[in-house]
Design brief:
This protein has 5 helices and no strands. It is an all-alpha fold.
Length: 70
């Protein structure tokens, strides 16, 4: 039975073979409510949305490195 708190990602058959790095990222990517809320706040409060996203990325490099397996 799947874990309801960590559902599997849905992709097409063969996706993992065609895009192994992206498949691994999908498996590792997790954000809690606080992290998502902070990202949304930064994006909404920034003059340019991309600047808010960059700010969040800079402050969460350790989390992002977990997603990409570094």
């Amino acid at each position: 039975m799947p874990d309801c708190l960590n559902p599997p990602h849905a992709t097409r058959h063969g996706f993992a073979d065609d895009f192994p790095e992206l498949d691994e990222w999908f498996k590792n990517w997790k954000m809690n409510d606080e992290q998502i809320g902070q990202l949304m706040s930064y994006v909404n409060e920034a003059d340019e949305e991309i600047e808010g996203a960059r700010k969040w990325v800079e402050e969460n490099e350790d989390l992002i490195n977990e997603w990409i397996g570094e």
